[in-house]
């Protein structure tokens, strides 16, 4: 007999406005306590220095975390020129200095080299695992960390302000795995200087936006109270861009048992309206009941919708 989980069966997403100085792991634990939730996770780490959108999944919403993590992200941040830091942000120790301060025109002329598919080496102080250990844990213990270059997508980046010669403000839209800290570090070197990120705020991740984000202190003031649930968003919030279909009661029962259902003509017609894809084979579809209760994520294969993630709303 399986052991019952501690806490309540709470399911959904919380869009947290993470404050500075709190790690993503600490923020998840705090939100989990507010809701007394059995299970929690997040869709992409924010460094302690960073503020802004931290999407936290509770209960069955954790099954949609990979989709949120694949989403585009947008950031506002400030680069500090003339100082390199070992962490590539203001929390680290100074590792190099330069008297060179790039002009805005020079920065904007160099930006095209740092757009599109680019190669970057992640910061040594990152959550990437090296032989089972987090890179930042190794770096903090004084060990040399060597991370492999990776290709990332920078969709847009623009200068939004130049408050003084030492600082430049930017906005960026990027794909999964891109590090703003590494981008600033490499841009600085291309400009003939050194630099680091002095301020960083994530403004969106997929369908989650800062305009919908709730401050941590607001949530904590609603500890274990119904008011907290006003900030709980549907599981489907993370599935922005995935076609959604409503299924009947009997089909929902089959899907929840892990069994496929036939792709009937009416469902297929609705799916072709929803999807941009000409080739629907293997397409991921989000299925819910007519009342909007999540049922499963399924793939269209050989004329069937085959569930590969089933949502289970039991109490433990």
Describe this protein's structure.
With 316 residues, this protein is of the alpha+beta class. The chain has three domains: 12-70 and 207-238, Pseudouridine synthase (2-Layer Sandwich); 73-205, 2-Layer Sandwich (Pseudouridine synthase); 241-310, PUA domain (Archaeosine Trna-guanine Transglycosylase, Chain: A, domain 4, Roll), CATH 2.30.130. 20% of the residues lie in helices and 35% in strands. The chain has eight helices and 20 strands. The protein has helices at 24-35, 65-69, 104-110, 135-140, 180-190, 216-220, 249-256, 265-274; strands spanning 12-18, 40-42, 51-58, 73-81, 83-85, 94-97, 116-120, 129-130, 133-134, 150-164, 167-174, 195-205, 208-209, 214-215, 232-233, 244-247, 261-262, 284-289, 294-301, 304-310. The strands form four sheets. Strands 1, 2, 3, 4, 7, 10, 11, 12, 13, 14 and 15 form an eleven-stranded mixed sheet that branches. Strands 16-18-19-20-17 form a five-stranded mixed sheet. The chain has a two-stranded antiparallel ribbon with strand order 5-6. It is globular, with a radius of gyration of 22 Å. The model has no long low-confidence stretch (mean pLDDT 89).
């Amino acid at each position: 007999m399986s052991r019952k989980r501690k806490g309540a069966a709470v399911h959904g997403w919380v869009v947290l406005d993470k404050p500075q100085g709190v790690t993503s792991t600490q923020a998840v634990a705090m939100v989990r306590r507010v809701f007394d939730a059995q299970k929690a996770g997040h869709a992409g780490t924010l460094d302690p220095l960073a503020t802004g959108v931290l999407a936290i999944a509770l209960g069955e919403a954790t099954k949609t975390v990979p989709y949120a993590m694949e989403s585009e992200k947008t950031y506002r941040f400030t680069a500090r020129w003339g100082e390199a830091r070992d962490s590539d942000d203001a929390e680290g120790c100074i590792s190099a200095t330069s008297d060179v301060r790039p002009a805005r025109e020079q920065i904007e002329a160099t930006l095209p080299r740092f757009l599109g598919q680019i190669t970057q080496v992640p910061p040594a102080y990152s959550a990437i695992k090296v032989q089972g250990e987090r890179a930042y844990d190794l770096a903090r213990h004084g060990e040399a960390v060597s991370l492999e270059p990776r290709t990332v997508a920078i969709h847009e980046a623009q200068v939004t302000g130049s408050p003084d010669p030492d600082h430049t403000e930017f906005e960026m839209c990027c794909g999964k795995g891109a590090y703003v800290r590494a981008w600033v570090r490499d841009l600085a070197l291309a400009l003939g200087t050194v630099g680091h990120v002095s301020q960083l705020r994530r403004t969106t991740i997929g369908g989650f936006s800062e305009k919908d984000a709730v401050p941590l202190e607001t949530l904590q003031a609603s500890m274990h109270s119904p008011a907290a649930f006003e900030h709980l968003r549907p599981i489907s919030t993370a599935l922005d861009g995935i076609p959604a279909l409503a299924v009947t009661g009997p089909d929902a029962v089959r899907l929840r048992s892990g069994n496929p259902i036939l792709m009937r003509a009416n469902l297929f017609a609705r799916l072709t309206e929803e999807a941009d894809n000409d080739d629907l084979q293997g397409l991921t579809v989000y299925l819910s009941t007519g009342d909007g209760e999540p049922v499963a994520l399924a793939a269209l294969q050989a004329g069937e919708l085959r569930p590969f993630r089933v949502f289970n709303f039991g109490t433990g």
